[in-house]
Amino acid sequence: MDILVYFILLALGMHVLRAREQAQRIALLGSFLSQFQIEKLMQDVLGGYQRALGEADAGRQDQVWRHLEPTERTLSEQFNLFVLEFAKVAEPQARLSRLPLALPFVSQYFPASTLDLRKLLSVHAHGIAQAAQNRPGQAPKSRAFTLSAELMLMQHSCHWFCRSKTVASARLLARHQTAYAQVLAAVAPSTRQAYLQLTGN
Fold first, then answer.
1. Side-chain-side CA neighbours of residue 184 (13 Å)
2. CA 171 distance to own-chain centroid
């Protein structure tokens, strides 16, 4: 019985410490994101893509694609500025655990099992910019597909930093009805390669 009580207390202690650490991460990331309109712009872009794809008339669809271009560029520019600001964060604060579940103090005492969110965000910024500028010269529908995946993977990384990779993947599936593996397969090859090198997946 004493052993059971000990494990219950240990589990409660771990939960409190993990919740406190996650709250600090959310506050840190939020303090930078609050300076920009990245989330609203993402919603506008992704919602616009759904409207464009729902248009039966090709002329009307082209009009929606063109209307979204300034918003895509603004989103890319704001995300680049956010990445530059977040780069000022000290390296220990920017670590996120590679472990699938969140455990307290992992980034502090086991830095080899972590990766740097600042570098990961730079990968996302490059991928978003390339897609927004249509560097590969894709057709509008293909470009929308790629940029959507780039945005979703970036959002996954932010949730991974705040919670855990498992929670981030579950949120991605719940919010966008898309699995993590599908998103990773849909981003640009250069993004996927750089991302996998950093995450070690």
1. 14
2. 11
